[in-house]
Amino acid sequence: MFPLKDNIPSSRPSYVNYLIIGVNLLVFFWELSLGVDLQKVAAVLGFVPARFLGLLAQGAAAWPTAVAPLFTSLFLHGGWLHLLGNLWFLYVFGDNVEDILGRGRYLAFYLGCGVGANFIYLMFAPVSTTPLIGASGAIAGVMGAYFALFPGARVLTLIPIVFIPIFLELPAYIFLGYWFLLQFIYATFSLGAVDSGTAAGGVAWWAHVGGFLVGILLLYPLAPLRAKTLLKQRRKRGAPEAGDQS
After folding, report:
1. CB-neighbour burial class of residue 29 (10 A; exposed 0-12, middle 13-18, buried 19+)
2. How much is the pLDDT for 219?
3. What is the per-residue pLDDT across 163-207, written as a single tens digit (0 to 9) for each?
4. Which residues does residue 198 pair with via DSSP β-bridges, in sequence order?
5. Where in the chain are the domains?
6. Are 91 and 217 in contact (CB under 8 A)?
7. What CATH number does the domain located at 2-237 have?
8. pLDDT at 121
9. Which of 4, 40, 172, 197 could form a disulfide bond with 156, CB atoms 3.0-4.6 angstroms apart?
10. Phi-psi category of 187—alpha, beta or left, where left has phi over 0 and alpha has psi -120 to 50?
11. Residue with more model confidence, 237 or 94
């Protein structure tokens, strides 16, 4: 399933979301210019669990080197499909979350989700020497926040069946719930992999699962009063409804 658009308009331009998309694009063009050096750069700027734990054990002097990839890894991608898929999901779901959180909080939220996703991956793959790169964990956090804030929003969805495209308008809680369930199933079946949490295709499923859950958990402490009120009202009603932008 692929989201095309939702029916929740933003009340203001989502400048931070556009900035994040732009930075990811610029970094990717920089990656393309590296040629054969790209793998070396990914190994340094990507998040490597085994290296991270090793550097932490060396003491405080090594901590900056250990911590930096938690952030830099969020802006690296392994190819056009990886990049464009991530950025499209961010484009569809990120503007509404920024609209609720505000620009400064949204940036902190996005980075926090990405770092949190890396730590969840670390829990399942502490001995992995494979660099983890990509914005997927952070974007999964944005999707988790959208799931909590706008469960009843309508998402126009493309479902390709063989060569026949089918378009459906699904409630966000169904689209995102199904997406999360798939990530969890793939993550569970990947537990036997050498780098636990990844599949043969190199997808860090546990980072997706972790990012989604971190996004829901971070939403409440970072959200302004109107978002907290919105969440409380939904819990009292006990039923998914589309978000109210007022």
Report:
1. exposed
2. 87
3. 788 899 999 999 999 999 999 999 988 776 645 555 444 678 999
4. 204
5. 2-237
6. no
7. 1.20.1540.10
8. 94
9. 4
10. alpha
11. 94
How large is the average pLDDT for residues 112-126?
A: 94
Neighbouring residues of 49: CB distance < 8 A, sequence distance ≥ 6:
121, 122, 125, 126, 127, 128, 132
Quote the Cα angle for 138-134-100, to 5°.
20
Q: What are the CA-CA distances from residue 128 to residues 54, 197, 233 (Å)?
A: 12, 9, 43
pLDDT at 146 over 50: yes
Give the residue carrying structure tokens 């990509």: 134
3-state secondary structure of 26: helix
CA proximity to 145, closest of 181, 109, 170, 114: 109
- DSSP-derived 3-state class of residue 89: helix
Positive or negative, the Cα torsion across 214, 216, 221, 223? positive
For tokens 């990839």, the residue is 69
Query: What pTM does this model have?
Result: 0.87
Give the DSSP letter of residue 158: E
